[in-house]
Amino acid sequence: MRKHILVVATALTAASCASTPAFQPDHVLPDAPQSWVAAPQQQGVEASRDWVGALGAAELSPFVEEAFRANPTLAQSLARYDSALASARISGANRLPSLNGSVDYTRRDANNGPGSDSYSLGLSSSWEVDLWGRVRNTANAAELDADASAQDLRGAQLSIAGQVARAWFSLIEARLQTELAERDYQTQNDTLALTERRFARGLVRSSDVRTARSSVASAEATLASRRRSEASAARTLETLLGRYPSARISRDGALPDMGELGNIGSPIDLLSRRPDVLAAERRLEASGLRVDAARAALYPSLSLTGSAGTGGASAEDLLDVDTLISTLVGSIAQPIFQGGRLRAQVDQAEANAELAIASYVETVLSAWREAENAIYADQILAERVDSLGQAFQEAAEAEGLVTRQYARGVATIFDLLNAYSRRISAESQYISARRDRATNRVDLYLAIAGDFVVPGATATGE
Asked: Are 251 and 171 in contact (CB under 8 A)?
């Protein structure tokens, strides 16, 4: 941990000249444990390097690939990365001399005689000698900004893959909930038909019929709500894929059964994997270089300018070396009075560096928190899925028993509807818990910046 912090601090404290006081950061990361607190005893088997494939949903990888091609958010991140690369090239160009060429033609007409023509060909060049490293540090800072933008792009890819996975699991859950509501609606109608037949034979009261009809209406309302949720989930996924949100996307698929979690590394490992942490680190280093560049602006600057030109009364004179005139000028400029602007720029750069340090620490702490929460939730949700699976099985057995008792006239309509309600609730919770566990596993892979492979796209872990 200390070694990692020293690497970051070195970029901040390196000064351009010996007389410049080193910039000292005011924040450091807290010591991190060697293993995750929520999972001190991890499995020895390394976690899969393709978490998208490891989720066990065959339909997911093609969806992620499609999102990589068409998702507008990802396209924005790519454009920002391209812009950062261009900015780095612009800053880097200041390290080299500039060279400009010109060709001039002048025609002078006289009132009482023939006119005259003149031609000139010129070259001019200028270059700032980087005595104190200001130009170098500014260019290096821009390169670090581009590196940070590359990590932002990688983070966007990871985020889009996670959003697609979560949206797909939400759609599968919504479809299963709709199917459950459809079965419930059919069951309630069957119960109503049975109750009406028993009423016709005088075996039950009219209130039982009305109670059964009420249950049918409630089941129909629930079904309508489930269908609405399913359509909304489908449109969410289609939007992520860059499709028109028509809610016509295929729902074929099943919620995966999550296996045991493999070795996912340590909190220290996360610092070299998470794109947002790496991006914050690059911006932290860049802010230190900008402090140095701002301080270097307080010192004298040396500029060299040169020019050369030829010319004459005809175009042939442009290439006549006898008419060549050249100059070379060196100038040293020392800021004397700028109204406090340069000192204010140093203060601003130092404040921005302090901001970058605090942002880096906050990013790391948030990353650790997300990982610990997801690791802990993975264990809790596994227990919840098992418990709700058992509850669903018991409720289904109880429903079958009460249904047979009602048909024989032993149980009341309220016993039957209560059994229906318990089974439906248990099954619905079981479906939701399985989706919660699958979604949390996605959150875990995102928290540790797990690798994934998408055909036709670059893996984020590389």
From this structure: yes
